Amino acid sequence: MKFISIMIVLFLSPLWPLGENPAPNAPFLIVKKQTNQIAYVDDREIQNVYRVATGATNELTPNGLHTITVKAKEPYYRKKNIPGGSPDNPLGSRWIGFDAEDTDGRIYGVHGTNKPESIGANVSAGCIRMMNENVEVLFDRIPIGTKILITESEEDFTTIAKQYNAM
What we know:
By secondary structure, this protein is α/β, with parallel strands linked by helices. It has helices at 2-12, 132-141, 157-163; strands at residues 28-32, 37-42, 45-51, 54-55, 64-73, 94-98, 108-111, 122-124, 128-129, 147-151. The strands form two sheets. It has an eight-stranded mixed β-sheet with strand order 3-2-1-10-5-6-7-9, sandwiched between helices. It has a two-stranded parallel sheet with strand order 4-8. β2 (37-42) and β3 (45-51) form a beta hairpin.
């Protein structure tokens, strides 16, 4: 009987992250492709804005509201078999993957770079590149389940954040 009770509780208990972030002041990321910037919103305020690199063409970095699903320190670069931590690794020191275009967080992501001169440009294959020191700050502050909005909006970060109830 005890086993059945435990199974019922586990079956009926919601597991996070399901749906929206549960905390009302949850972190939120906004990427503006036209300015190559990412805003980190937390506690209903814009905490930081960083320069980034986005897709070489506008279509490569997918617009929309996505969810952070994977995080990795010193990520392995599968395409060219480059180990994490290698100076040749184009993913830099951190990977923050999100579920764009029905992927699992291992295709699209916010990550560091071994080419800091690329920051501010449209050069990636679709990911969002950041300076390693900046992506390390975000990595430590955003949990799995955080929402990331990628947009071409001309509006400022505050207006966009308010539209998504992040402020």
